[in-house]
Write a structure and sequence with these properties.
Structural class: alpha+beta
Distance between the termini: 44 Å
Number of strands: 37
Helix content: 10-25%
Number of domains: 2
Shape: globular
Largest sheet: 8 strands, mixed
Strand content: 25-35%
Number of helices: 13
């Protein structure tokens, strides 16, 4: 994150501080869900919901350098997988195309689904893929609502929108439940990421073997395959849950389109392969979570610095490995899958110590404000003390050790302790032969491997089978910034400067993870959850006002024109339609139709996939809108268009049935020579 701009969309620092000083209290209740159906059979269900918001919301990940969303390139999705064991409590795994999960969002969704499902608070996991091209301002802490996005505050409309969407997708997955078979495994995915902080990595006393010695990254993808029984009695692929370590930031802070970045392609690639190879009687769901990604960066081609083309190339490379692993697990599928969960929540500011490890008062380091080595803040990245690798060498006996605290002793005057995240939701999910540890941190590769190793040792040794694989899931059930090893922290790169609670954070989490696994194995319950959760937050509103008179009939503004967007050829069609509050981006809006010589118009399908705004080559952008104007100008772009020879195409703007679709003039999907 960066704090270098004096004004963001007309907001001065004084206005930002004023926003931070106002408060509302959001209350969430813990409700008892339905009793699970104990039919002695493992069941599973899956669902997908679109969570793309309207234009105008601040995008999270690049702090004040981030831009408001002006449209969408790959729709933001929430994917849910429901798993019910033969006996015991079910779990719901939800992966969202968002920067991170949120404790507030997690608890509210658990409250909403209690009346419609048998998923309780402990069995629900909500994580983000960590795209930097999705809205923020829905977090549980004042600090990250203020500084994760390009504008500060907690947007209640966004919070309600996401809560209702996630409750819907979990309910749909619950209703979809069918007898299931599961298998799990892992595969190496080399060559897609590099370590962006090698100076900090080199300080580690030891490098765990699972990390690539050359690149300093964790190359392992872990995946759970789920097949379900169809009406004909045959088991078909239904879903996959995977975890892989990469910072999915192919797009830089100048991007203005909501999108899932690299993971958008990873998720869709496996789904396409399953449809092409098996063609199951339902929409296959791939929920792709992030792993130990904090100190990685995408490995771009020489001369490239990101962009949509690189996001797709890397996503396809990762997706290819996911497909290879997925299909290799077919022979391991078992109807006797183990599914169990353990969870508790506690305030780390009230319980900061475990064993010999103690957390410090949370503090922001100067190294955080300079940004990472690959997406750094102008000017600050070159200044002594701010630049990576300028730790304190003296007076390091305080709880923050080598961290140079931004503002020094005066930081508590404008960043109160209660403004930082402090309620840690600790969860363990044992699924088949893999144990997942969802954590609300961006976890460096070595920090994650140490936490996993400590947790794995908590399993009792038996002669019958090896202890299961233990896998950290980052950005899950909340957002707390970063966690590094103590050695990496001592160098104060961006990742160490953003480890809020000091150098003992990683061993603190490792000790708690081991205790949690031990409790899971022995059947010990965690600390009881309270009946009510309260979150003091600073409000703001970026969600556009809804249109009172409904959506008007769209009108074309000319024929499609050839343009170049980020070095990609594209066809651009402009039309006049409702303003941002009246055109829902979370519903189908644009598709391409094709007509061969002498034939009728039909949807264009390439590689078994329709060419529409559900894919990766159609973008929608708000091109022009004056405040309080009843209509706005929109653009639909078809990037890298292609189609069969001797054919003509047209854009179709969908209206949801309230009016006839809008058709563009027909065109040839080939750039002019």
């Amino acid at each position: 994150m960066s704090d270098t701009k004096a004004h963001v969309w007309g907001l001065s620092r004084r206005a930002v501080l004023k926003r931070l000083s106002s408060r509302i209290v959001v209350t969430v209740k813990r409700r008892v869900p339905r009793e699970p159906t104990a039919n002695g059979v493992v069941c599973a269900g899956a669902a997908v919901v679109d969570i793309t918001p309207p234009p105008g919301l601040p995008m999270a990940g690049y702090s004040l350098m981030g831009r408001p969303g002006e449209g969408v390139r790959t729709r933001l999705k929430a994917r849910a997988i429901y798993l019910r064991p033969a006996k015991g409590r079910p779990v719901a795994l939800v992966v969202c195309d968002l920067l991170s999960g949120s404790t507030l969002l997690h608890h509210r969704v658990a409250e909403l689904v209690a009346g419609t499902t048998d998923v309780d608070l402990a069995g629900l996991m909500v994580c983000g893929t960590h795209t930097h091209s999705a809205p923020g301002n829905f977090f549980e802490s004042v600090f990250y609502n203020a500084f994760a996005s390009g504008a500060p505050g907690f947007d209640q409309d966004l919070y309600r929108f996401l809560s209702n969407k996630l409750a819907r997708v979990i309910t749909d997955a619950f209703k979809d439940a069918k007898p299931a078979r599961l298998a799990s495994g892992r595969i190496r995915v080399p060559g897609v990421a590099v370590n962006r902080s090698p100076g900090a990595l080199a300080q580690n006393r030891y490098i765990l073997e699972e990390t690539s010695q050359i690149a300093g990254v964790n190359p392992w993808m872990h995946l759970v395959r789920i097949d379900c029984r169809a009406e004909d009695g045959t088991f078909y692929p239904r879903a996959a849950f995977s975890a892989f370590s990469i910072h999915p930031t192919a797009l830089d802070p100048k991007n203005r389109l909501y999108n899932g970045d690299i993971f958008a392609t990873v998720e869709r690639y496996l789904a396409r392969r399953v449809k092409k190879r098996v063609d199951p009687p339902w929409e296959f769901v791939h929920a792709a979570a992030n792993h130990t990604h904090a100190d990685t960066t995408p490995r771009f081609l020489p001369g490239e610095d990101g962009g949509f083309a690189e996001a797709r190339r890397l996503g396809e490379k990762i997706g290819h490995k996911a497909a290879r692993l997925f299909f290799s697990l077919e022979g391991d599928l078992s109807k006797k899958a183990r599914i169990r969960v353990w969870a508790e929540e506690f305030n780390v500011q009230k319980s900061p110590r475990v064993e010999e490890f103690e957390l410090s008062r949370p503090a922001v380091g100067l190294a955080l404000t300079a940004g990472s080595t690959t997406r750094s803040t102008p000017i600050l990245r070159h200044l002594p003390f701010f630049a990576p690798g300028w730790p304190k060498r003296v007076f390091t006996g305080s709880g923050q050790g080598a961290k140079r605290v931004a503002g020094g002793v005066f930081q508590p005057l404008f960043l109160r302790t209660g403004d930082f995240p402090r309620r840690l939701f600790l969860q363990v999910l044992h699924i088949q032969d893999t144990v997942f540890l969802p954590l609300p941190f961006e976890i460096s590769c070595q920090a994650g491997l140490r936490i996993q190793e400590r947790a794995r040792r908590a399993f009792p040794e038996t002669t019958r089978r090896e202890p299961p694989q233990v896998v950290c899931i980052s950005c899950a059930n909340g957002y707390w910034g970063y966690v590094t090893t103590p050695e990496e922290y001592s160098m104060q790169y961006y990742e160490g400067g953003h480890t809020l609670y000091g150098p003992d954070t990683q061993p603190f989490l490792a000790a708690h993870a081991a205790r949690a696994v031990n409790s899971l194995v022995k059947g010990k319950p965690g600390r009881p959850f309270p009946d009510t959760f309260t979150f003091p937050l600073s409000p703001a509103r970026y969600w556009p006002k809804p249109r009172e008179n409904g959506r008007p009939r769209p009108t074309a503004l000319g024929p499609p024109l050839w343009e170049t967007d980020e070095d990609e050829p594209c066809l651009c069609f402009s039309w006049r339609d409702a303003p941002p509050g009246g055109l829902p981006l979370d519903r189908p809006l644009v598709k391409i139709e094709i007509r061969k010589k002498g034939g009728d118009w039909q949807p264009l399908v390439i590689d078994h996939q329709p060419v529409d705004d559900e894919g990766e080559e159609i973008s929608i952008r708000l091109a022009k809108h004056a405040k309080d104007e009843p209509r706005a100008i929109w653009e639909a772009r078809w990037h890298n268009p292609r189609g069969p020879a001797n054919s003509r195409c047209r854009f179709v703007i969908l209206t949801g049935g309230h009016a006839p679709p809008l058709y563009s003039m027909e065109f040839v999907p080939r750039p002019p020579t």
